[in-house]
Amino acid sequence: MRTYLGHLAVERGLAANTLSSYRRDLLRYVRVQEGRGRTAIGDITEDDVRAFLMGLREGDEEHPPLSAGSAARALVAVRGLHRFALREGLASGDPAHDVKPPTPPRRLPKAITLEEVERLLAAAAGPSDGDAGTARGLRDRALLELLYGSGARISEAVGLDVDDVDLDDGFARVAGKGGKARAVPIGDYAARAVGAYLVRARPELAGAGRGGPALFLNARGGRLSRQGAWMVLRAAADRARLSQVSPHTLRHSFATHLLDGGADVRVVQELLGHASVTTTQVYTLVTVQLLREVYATSHPRARS
User: Fold this and answer.
1) Does domain 2-87 sit in CATH 1.10.150.130?
2) Does 299 qualify as catalytic in the annotation?
């Protein structure tokens, strides 16, 4: 298991968060198989793998039952481990090859309307006009404008350095999953908000720390964390009286609104940094639902 994790880190370049999830899932797998009397990876059978998967779904005294998606994620780690063991000659077969992951229910991304986006962005700077000029208010507005204007993940936005943003051309260079870089447009509204933050707010925040390249800074002058950015979003949503707003809400809304406006799904795929267009196509289901609603309310023969 340690050798496999090392392979994922060094040769595959998996992100730290992904490696942490793999390690947690595989440790549980190893303990379960040891409890079944398996002392070497070559001893594990297909029935052992299926029993592990069933145990994930049912839970036990130490672990609650996992959803289909979480169990499937754990099985991905297990299948990767056995493929690696077979390839490296550590086992003579792959007992996980024919074990299929449970199919999670299809969940459409949660997107908010354009009017709700505007309410959220207006609330980012604070509950009163006076807060809009504070360093934090300018930072928060710039952060949320950039998230919606670019479709970037929160982790990508807080990972930006000042030099990664070109306000004249309206582009930012973000590092996506697996360290894969891509250029994303940020739009005039986001460019103006980021520009105001850089001129009027960032120097004040930077003065509280030791300096650094990060674009978005916290109150101590260090790089704003993902948790800090999530709190900014949550506070703005509370002020705008919007419920069910998650860290991905603005990203989902960005994609959905582009497709509603007629954007090609492959362009949206590139903007979001999805490796496969299949991942992006889930957003087309959202827009099909919108078309159905418009048809049902507008066409004279839509309803009997």
Assistant:
1) yes
2) no
